[in-house]
UniProtKB/TrEMBL annotation:
<feature type="binding site">
    <location>
        <position position="107"/>
    </location>
    <ligand>
        <name>S-adenosyl-L-methionine</name>
    </ligand>
</feature>
<dbReference type="GO" id="GO:0008168">
    <property type="term" value="F:methyltransferase activity"/>
</dbReference>
<protein>
    <recommendedName>
        <fullName>Ribosomal RNA small subunit methyltransferase H</fullName>
        <ecNumber>2.1.1.199</ecNumber>
    </recommendedName>
</protein>
<feature type="binding site">
    <location>
        <position position="114"/>
    </location>
    <ligand>
        <name>S-adenosyl-L-methionine</name>
    </ligand>
</feature>
<feature type="binding site">
    <location>
        <begin position="44"/>
        <end position="46"/>
    </location>
    <ligand>
        <name>S-adenosyl-L-methionine</name>
    </ligand>
</feature>
<dbReference type="InterPro" id="IPR002903">
    <property type="entry name" value="RsmH"/>
</dbReference>
<comment type="function">
    <text>Specifically methylates the N4 position of cytidine in position 1402 (C1402) of 16S rRNA.</text>
</comment>
<keyword id="KW-0698">rRNA processing</keyword>
<feature type="binding site">
    <location>
        <position position="88"/>
    </location>
    <ligand>
        <name>S-adenosyl-L-methionine</name>
    </ligand>
</feature>
<feature type="binding site">
    <location>
        <position position="61"/>
    </location>
    <ligand>
        <name>S-adenosyl-L-methionine</name>
    </ligand>
</feature>
<dbReference type="GO" id="GO:0032259">
    <property type="term" value="P:methylation"/>
</dbReference>
<comment type="similarity">
    <text>Belongs to the methyltransferase superfamily. RsmH family.</text>
</comment>
<keyword id="KW-0489">Methyltransferase</keyword>
<keyword id="KW-0949">S-adenosyl-L-methionine</keyword>
<keyword id="KW-0963">Cytoplasm</keyword>
<dbReference type="InterPro" id="IPR029063">
    <property type="entry name" value="SAM-dependent_MTases_sf"/>
</dbReference>
<dbReference type="InterPro" id="IPR023397">
    <property type="entry name" value="SAM-dep_MeTrfase_MraW_recog"/>
</dbReference>
C-alpha cells in the first residue's frame, strides 16, 4: 500500500496528524461496506480515512470540542457517518442497535489539538489553567496537585508516570502550595524543573508528571481496560480491533489483553500442563511502530505503538483488571 496523503481537517483543529494511519487502514482492510467504530474520534483523522475508503463509521468522543469536526464529516459523508457523545469504555452500549460492527479502532491518549489548546491545561509548554479534563467534568489536575498529601501525590506520579524522582517532586509541590495554590501549567512545570533540574538535550522534567496527572484526572487506564472488554463484547467472530497506545504502561495492558498468556507465568514442561482458557483473539499482529518517514512528518508519533487482533467465536470475558499489569497507586 502506498502512503496516503494526510487527511485535511478544519482550520480550527490546529496541526493534528493521526499516527500510524496507513498501518491502521491495512489492519482493518478491506474497508468498503464495513461498519467501524472509531472509539476515540478526536479531530477525525482516522474516521475521514476510513470513510474515504468506503466504510461506514460510528464515531465516539467525550470531548465537546470535537463537535465541529464531527459536523464537517457528517456533511461530507451523509448517511455514512454518525457521531455519539460518550466514552469509548461504553462503546458497545453506544453502538447498540446500529447493526453488526466489523471493526473497532482506538487511539489512546491526548490528541494534538488538546495539547495545542492552552486553556485545556494539558501541556507544560503553554501557560493555561491546570485542568487536563477531557470531558470538563470531575476533578482537575489543580485539584489533585493542591489537595493530595505528599505520599499520595508521590505514589501517583510514580505509578502513572514512571517518575523515579516522584517523592522529591511531590515535596516541592506541597511546599509551593503552602505559599499559594498552584493554578497554572507553567507554574507547576517550573516547580518540577526546580525540584529535579534539567539537563541539556533531555526531555522536559515535567513530562512524566504531567502524563501521570492527566491519566489520573481522566481515569485513562480504567477507561482503556473497560474499552477493550467493550470491544470484545461488541465484535463477533472475524471482527478486528486495532489499538494505538503511546507509552509502555498502556501498551502492556493492550498486549496482555490480546494474549493473556503473555502476562502469566511460564508453564514447566516437567509438570502437568494447566488447561488454558479459550482464546478470544487470534491473528494477533506484532507491535508496529512508526517508520522514519512518519517520524520526520510528525515527531509526536515517536512513542506510538499499534497492536491488533481478530475476534474468535469464544464468548466474551467479563471485564477484569486482573493480569493486565494495571499500574496501581499505593495507598489508594
Amino acid at each position: 500500500m502506498g502512503k496516503r496523503s494526510m487527511p485535511e481537517v478544519p482550520q480550527t483543529s490546529g496541526p493534528h496528524v493521526p499516527v500510524l494511519l496507513d498501518e491502521v487502514i491495512a489492519a482493518l482492510s478491506p474497508l468498503a461496506g464495513k461498519r467501524i467504530v472509531d472509539g476515540t474520534f478526536g479531530a477525525g483523522g482516522y474516521s475521514r480515512a476510513l470513510l474515504a475508503d468506503g466504510a461506514e463509521v460510528i464515531a465516539i468522543d467525550r470531548d465537546p470540542s470535537v463537535l465541529p469536526f464531527a459536523e464537517a464529516l457528517d456533511q461530507e459523508f451523509p448517511g455514512q457517518f454518525s457521531f455519539v457523545a460518550g466514552t469509548f469504555s461504553e462503546l458497545d452500549d453506544l453502538s447498540a442497535g446500529r447493526g453488526k460492527i466489523d471493526s473497532v479502532v482506538l487511539d489512546i491518549g491526548v490528541s494534538s489539538m488538546q495539547l495545542d489548546e492552552a486553556d485545556r491545561g494539558f501541556s507544560f509548554m503553554r501557560d493555561g489553567p491546570l485542568d487536563m479534563r477531557m470531558g470538563a467534568i470531575g476533578q482537575s489536575a489543580a485539584d489533585l496537585v493542591n489537595t493530595l498529601e505528599t505520599e499520595a501525590l508521590a505514589n501517583l506520579l510514580y505509578a502513572f508516570g514512571e517518575e523515579r524522582k516522584s517523592r522529591r517532586i511531590a515535596q516541592f509541590i506541597v511546599a509551593a502550595r503552602e505559599v499559594a495554590p498552584i493554578v497554572t501549567t507553567l507554574e507547576l512545570a517550573r516547580i518540577i524543573e526546580k525540584s529535579i533540574g534539567r539537563k541539556p538535550g533531555d526531555a522536559h522534567p515535567a513530562t512524566r508528571s504531567f502524563q501521570a496527572l492527566r491519566i489520573a484526572v481522566n481515569a485513562e487506564f480504567d477507561q482503556l481496560v473497560e474499552g477493550l472488554f467493550a470491544a470484545e463484547r461488541l465484535l463477533e467472530e472475524g471482527g478486528t480491533l486495532a489499538v494505538i497506545s503511546f507509552h509502555s504502561l498502556e501498551d502492556r495492558i493492550v498486549k496482555r489483553f490480546f494474549d493473556p498468556a503473555k502476562g502469566g507465568p511460564a508453564q514447566s514442561r516437567h509438570l502437568p500442563q494447566v488447561e488454558t482458557a479459550a482464546r478470544r483473539w487470534e491473528k494477533i499482529a506484532k507491535a508496529i511502530k512508526p517508520g522514519s518517514e512518519e517520524l520526520a512528518r510528525n515527531p509526536r508519533a515517536r512513542s506510538s505503538i499499534l497492536r491488533s487482533g481478530t475476534r474468535t467465536v469464544a464468548d466474551a470475558r467479563p471485564t477484569s483488571f486482573e493480569g493486565l499489569g494495571m499500574p496501581m497507586v499505593r495507598g489508594t
